[in-house]
């Protein structure tokens, strides 16, 4: 029986179908868990109770109730909107999100597909959602959406560079682009790369926050001046998909940061034989910590102004990231 | 099937899943949701008042130069990656070569800053 099961999953198509089913369950689940954590933690930080009634205790079913509610919402598309573009924008955003899951290593061998260009692929795919955001902003034919979309585009291209350059430090140390290869390099070295790549890690997290357009980098959807930015005209399920993508992207960005800098599915002192089982738990634990920090930041820092955003990216983060590459390279070659 | 082709297929299938998720869920919701669009509902949102002019009004895209700089830097960042992988084999030669490359990059950035194109006024 086990032999039959192994043979079955050795078949490429069967395993692909299983992977797709797994990721299709994971994404809504991640969205709900992080979304609920954000609600409850925000409430805690503001001395509120937060969701309380749905599901009885702690309001744990709040997001399930929200999801059911969204099912019943009318699908409104404004008269002036560019319909094909308006409709395909959420698809493009979610395509980028789902495709990112391919290269996240959950344990030794536990990866959807170990692409040899791993991290490079992840960085390339993560910029697809930028196009989706710009499409959403432009097609709505709404002044707030247009402003939000343009701001988003300006911010996302500015922070794309520090994000890409911050990764290079870890790549130099690992000598590979493969995501599981980077984790194995950290296991072989015996320490997570963050110890020597503190600067790279900090820049990566700042840039990742900006790429997610989360506070303090939420100029594109600044509620107090742009209503909801590029999301203003979206309602019902299409609106929900943007949020699902945001929460799933919080997970993938944290997971990439964990893999590159924090040792991925590995913890010092854990024997390699149990990593197959302990790996996913360790990875998700680390991702939870980083996601908590992102939510924490939201209630700690005020929003950056647009010129401050651009100054931070171009005049500070990019030069520092380049200096980090140079210093890492010198240490790698000479020591 | 070669592993190379399988990798492409996996990526394609995952990307396809993203589209299927959106379309499938919208399809299911289509059965449940009401459809009653009125002209007031389909109006462009502008804080409750009737919209003034077209939504695609002329705006000043301030970061045109930022966009150009981005393209230049992004292409150069792509060159850094292959170098980063084989740095250990290239040794001091590779290090010096890339120092010169990054120095020129920084020179360009400093020039842009000194020219004032990165000011947001």
Question: What does the model show?
Answer:
The complex is a heterodimer of chains A (about 325) and B (about 120). Chain A is mainly alpha-helical and about 325 residues long. Chain A is about 70% helix and about 0% strand. In chain A, helix 6 runs antiparallel to helix 7 and helix 9 runs antiparallel to helix 11. The longest helix of chain A has about 35 residues. Chain A is globular and about 60 Å long. Chain B has about 120 residues and is an all-alpha fold. Chain B has 2 domains: about 35 residues; about 55 residues. In chain B, helix 2 runs antiparallel to helix 3. The longest helix of chain B is centred in the N-terminal third of the chain and has 30 residues. The radius of gyration of chain B is 25 Å and the shape is flat. The termini of chain B are far apart. The mean pLDDT of chain B is about 80. At the A-B interface, helix 2, helix 4, helix 7, helix 11 and helix 13 of A face helix 1, helix 2 and helix 3 of B.
Number of strands of chain B: 0
Q: Tally the helices of chain A.
A: 13
Low-confidence stretches of chain B: none
Backbone structural class of chain A: mainly alpha
Residue-averaged pLDDT of chain B: 81
| Count of separate DSSP helical elements of chain B | 3
Number of strands of chain A: 0
Structural class of chain B: mainly alpha
Biggest β-sheet strands, sense, barrel of chain B: none
Strand content of chain A: under 5%
Q: Name the poorly predicted regions of chain A.
A: none
The first-to-last residue Cα distance of chain A is: 53 Å
The share of residues in extended strands of chain B comes to under 5%
Separation of termini of chain B? 56 Å
Alpha-carbon Rg of chain B, integer: 25 Å
**Strand-and-helix sequence of chain A, N→C?**
HHHHHHHHHHHHH
Order of helices and strands of chain B: HHH
